Predict the 3D structure of the following.
Amino acid sequence: MTRLERFRAMLTLRHFDEACLEGVPTGEIHGELHTGIGQEAIGAGMMESLQPGDAVVSTHRNHYHALAAGVPMKPMLAEIFEKASGLCRGRGGHMHLFDAEHNFSCSGIVGASLPVALGYAYSFSMKGQNNLAVGVTGDGGANNGAFHECLNIAGAWKLPLVVLVENNELAISVPIGDVSATATIAERACAYGAWGKKVDGTDVDIVAEAFAEAAHHARSGRGPAILEASCHRFRGHFEGDHDSYRTMKEKREMRERHDPITIARRKLLAEGLAGEAELDAMAEASQREMAELLAEVRAEPLPEAAGALDYLFVGGKR
Amino acid sequence: MSSAVRNLSISQTVAEAIGLEMERDENVMVMGEDVGKIGGVFGATRTLQKRFGDKRVRDTPISEMAFTGMGVGLAMAGLRPIVEIMFVDFIGVCLEQVYNAMAKIPYMSGGNVRVPMVIKTAGGCIGSAAQHSQCLWGLFAHLPGMKVVAPSSPFDHKGLLSAAIRSDDPVVYIEHKALLLKKAETFLNGGHVPEERYAIPLGKAKVVREGSDLTLATLSASVEYALEVSEDLAREGIDLEIVDLRTVVPLDSETVAASVSKTGRLLVVDEDYLSFGLSGELVTRVIEALGPGGLKQVARHAVPDVPIPAALSLEEAVVPGPASIAQAVRELAAVS
Ligand SMILES: Cc1ncc(C[n+]2csc(CCOP(=O)(O)OP(=O)(O)O)c2C)c(N)n1
């Protein structure tokens, strides 16, 4: 991807999650919603290193990873808006997006993503496929036992697993510094014979390069990689979270200093890769496209209640 | 006892019970994600860390297997830990410590070892689909060795939690996510919460509405749902007797059987899954008590053995709520 394409990808991610926000006050999304707003550089940065057949297994904060994995935007937005035309026919919802075609899945249970990613990694290794599995976790999820179990297995059996840690420094209200024995998550790599690196996850170019390195390591049969990308969660943990564990000043400064889109824009302008007008036009176009998509999705019907018991088992209701 | 209704949320009654028990017994402590600094995602431990310090009210990492097992060790070492599992749906990651350690050690030790521990967790539907909207009290009840509590009213939340903390047996205490922020004065039942410390014995159901036509046995949020529709149903000519079970283990089937011997009809409403759970168990016990001819009609209204779907249209089709409860009552009453 070119630098400009990375920038455009971040805009798409941001505008996608902003579209989701619109469904909360209206009740169109009637459960929890966790957005990735502020963390766009990671989703956009991983995109270019994923190849057809790769698997991505994400978390409760999964939208950006799904889009990076190639999950089509319209059925995904429709699923989040609980529509019959959604990716999972309205059964899954925002925390449970599944796309068999793109080997994308996720879990609302913290820590539950890595074991599934490990399964994909084993299958790729068994079949001699040159694919990799990305297991996503937050910093909080890295303290779940599954993190250790999966990395140990992947290390012992040299499986093509990339553990992508989105370190936004908070698990809801609990700071990672209070609950991790190591200063970084990446440094735990040595315990598993894994590649490990912590990078600035607010700079899409840095993420793209680092993810490419991690992916190369995993694809070359040398075992797992831990890529830890630092970032900032701009909104509350979920929509409705009072976010009282951070001061207004902290939150304002975070948005001013650490917005990956602003950071990329500044770099593109400084390096003469684009002009103000071009970038503004790009943002407007992206916003307009998303508004059109949202309008289309909103017009779709909800699933019919009569089908509530369908899809439990293959070929039948019960 | 003071008599004015204090307009507390359920979370506040829960925090009040824990605070009073922590004052009473220095061995009582709380551990879990976000329970300290912010006082719980629903505020059910608010102010406790300030009052009792961060050793006794501990924010943990997302390491449920470790801190649930820690609860077992702490209890064996003489403390009375309250371990918060934020949502009951997350119990899968630490079920090992719950059912193989906490619940079995008292029996396996021939009664030599006590595990006076409480797992405090939030269950019930909150619109967040398959992995965040379950009840699961039937799961715990199926596994021997734990008392299982699922309160409905503000009064019961406080008194049953105090009893759970004082219990020398392990207890799973399941709040309902949709009730935690609801205010006392909006409850039809048990809105008055005395300021002082009190405990309600575990295993005693409560008749929250007397009636003559049909016994509706339920617990947790469904008690309010049933009360909400009971007056409409009365106007239609169906006089409900509503029994709040309060605890699944012990299950007070005597109170239910006594009610059924009067009304002749039993409807069990359960927000948990239908099969192999509370509703089947309760019906069986009532039949065992009254004999197969002891009731005229029986029915169950519960989640029909599917995961909770995301879309509201589907969720309403599978999760019992006021409208579906009223419908189930009408259908049962119509059979003669
Ligand atoms: C096993 C389990 N425990 C607790 C939760 C509740 N919970 C959901 S997200 C979250 C915090 C996750 O923090 P982190 O992994 O850092 O990801 P972030 O939300 O910051 O993206 C918690 C505690 C859960 N979903 N699953």
